[in-house]
Amino acid sequence: MVASTATFAMYFVAMVAIGLWVYKRTTSLSDFVLGGRQLNSWVAGLSANASDFSAWLLLGLPGAIYLSGLGEAWIAVGLAIGFAASWYLIAGRLRVYTERATDARNGGESNSLTLSSYLENRFGDHSGVLRGASAILILLFYLFYVASGLVAMGGLFEKVFDMPSAVAIIVGVSIVVLYTFLGGFLAVSYTDVIQAVMMWLALLVVPIVAIIVVMTDPSAGHEVDFGSMLGGVEGTNLGDALAPIAIISGLAWGIGYLGQPHILARFMGIRSAKAVPQAAVISVGWAVTAMALALLVGFTGVVFFDTPLEDAEQVFPSLISALMNPWVAGLLLAAILAAVMSTADSQLLVASSAITEDGYRAFVNREASPMKLVWISRAAVVGVAVAAAAIALSGNQTIMELVGYAWAGFGAGFGPVILLSLYWRKMNRGGALAGMVGGGATAVIWTELDARVMHTDLYAMVPAVVVSLIAIAVFNNLGRASQQMEDDFDRVDGEAKATV
After folding, report:
1. What digits encode the pLDDT tens for the residues 54-88?
2. pLDDT under 70: residue ranges of the chain
3. Are 414 and 134 in contact (CB under 8 A)?
4. Beta-carbon neighbour count of residue 324 at 10 Å?
5. Is the CA virtual torsion 369, 375, 379, 381 positive or negative?
6. With a threshold of 0.90, does the pTM exceed it?
7. For the purposes of burial, counting CB atoms within 10 Å of the CB of 499, is it exposed (0-12), middle (13-18) or buried (19 or more)?
8. Is the dihedral of CA 252, 258, 262, 263 positive or negative?
9. Which pLDDT tens digit goes with each residue over 417-464?
10. Using CA atoms, how far apart are residues 204 and 272, in angstroms rounded to an integer?
11. pLDDT tens digit string along 232-244?
């Protein structure tokens, strides 16, 4: 208890210190939301990883593998493909387009700070409907996404400190809010680098030590049965892991990367499109190896624990507690906390940006001073955190359920729209709005309908993306792209190709 408390305290102090360090450098909404677009390749790449993989990587994925076996590994395969695709298909073009698209309200280059403002400027939407609808989707799904992190945080504190889950959620969210409140995007990005390193090292060390113990300590009585190991503790039939529904649903998770605002924000905040290729190598390399190690953690847990764990998503913390001395265990458990916090802070920041840039500034006070917008964003961070904490405290959903719900909503609601907006010259506002609403709504409806009526186990991402693409194709025919939109596309297309 003393060792864990000391290591957790040092970690908290380091995160808040970074927030204080960049506090005085945050003087405008651009600084708070995108860090003035000054991230180098290393910071952008590792920050994208830490803000993305969260507790899902250290708790959700190992837990799913531990429980159900090889069938859940398709999710990791799909995510690896999707993550690489987001860097190579979207990052460079989005970085250029968010800066170069003509401002739909004032003319001239836009310097779009949020995904919603980018969509408004890309499609020349003077009505504000596209911006408002996208901001609402962002807020809706981020409440569930942040809540998933808080559920993980509650479980971790409950295990380590024997602290009630509700108290743990309140303590944890308070720390995240504090340094996000102080430093905004730069604080979040710099802390993400530390958190990414901690997460990867923890995933490397724990399964290696566990495998050594299993192979060299006969007195422990661990029996290695690869058939049983691959089926998880539930003994899932390996034939089920190769079923079309399992493969399609798992691989479909990768599509989600095309529409996650907290990851796309790293693409928008990188120093220039020329820095994208190096950042992509760093980020994709980290992601692929980290997910492979997370799978190994789950399989190792099946062999190591003779009695099945009550909570499968605690397999990684349980291995740490069983294998490590208290001081090392404290550092490794802090890595799990890092995973939770690194995603929650990014999501809080994007959600607060939607309230400030796409709500207050766009529809209430367009002439607000830079510092007033910063303080409104800080207040929004607190508001979103309180709402997400309420969701986390109100139910018993697992981390995988909450993440899956939000991931499908973002992936289908924004993924097809963002991808086509970067590559389709003739795409217009009607297609973008229909694709966004159709995809996001289908993700919600399918999740509930399948759970209660159909029971197909098909991940909502699949039908939701199909609906989004059909809606874009149909409604795009009802309007047309303006000459200004086509000129913007040609200019961005030329600049993006020149940086490859």
Report:
1. 777 888 889 888 888 777 788 889 889 999 999 99
2. 1, 3, 23, 182-183, 217-231, 235-242, 338-339, 342, 395-402, 500
3. yes
4. 18
5. positive
6. no
7. middle
8. positive
9. 999 999 999 999 999 999 999 999 999 899 888 888 888 888 889 999
10. 32
11. 777 666 666 667 8
Both tokens of 182, joined, read 């102080």
- Tokens 């989707």 -> residue: 137
- Structure-token pair, residue 263: 């990851």
User: Which amino acid is located at 420 in the chain?
Assistant: L
Contacts 24+ apart (CB under 8 A), 222-227: 222/303, 222/304, 222/306, 223/303, 224/303, 225/303
Q: Partners of 39 in the beta sheet?
A: 270
Structure tokens at 363: 């529809």
Per-residue H/E/C for the chain: CHHHHHHHHHHHHHHHHHHHHHHCCCCCHHHHHHHHHCECHHHHHHHHHHHHHHHHHHHHHHHHHHHHHHHHHHHHHHHHHHHHHHHHHHHHHHHHHHHHCECCCCCCECCCCCHHHHHHHHCCCCCCHHHHHHHHHHHHHHHHHHHHHHHHHHHHHHHHHCCCHHHHHHHHHHHHHHHHHHHHHHHHHHHHHHHHHHHHHHHHHHHHHHHHHHHHCHHHCCCCCHHHHHHCCCCCCHHHHCCHHHHHHHHHHHHHHHHCHHHHHHHHHECCHHHHHHHHHHHHHHHHHHHHHHHHHHHHHHHHCCCCCCCHHHHHHHHHHHHCCHHHHHHHHHHHHHHHHHHHHHHHHHHHHHHHHHHHHHHHCCCCCHHHHHHHHHHHHHHHHHHHHHHHHHCCCCHHHHHHHHHHHHHHHHHHHHHHHHHCCCCCHHHHHHHHHHHHHHHHHHHHHHHHHHCCCCCCHHHHHHHHHHHHHHHHCCCCCCHHHHHHHHHHHHHHHHCC
CA distance 61 to 55: 9
Domain extents in the chain:
2-400
CATH class of 2-400: mainly alpha
- Distance of alpha carbon 299 from alpha carbon 269, whole angstroms: 37
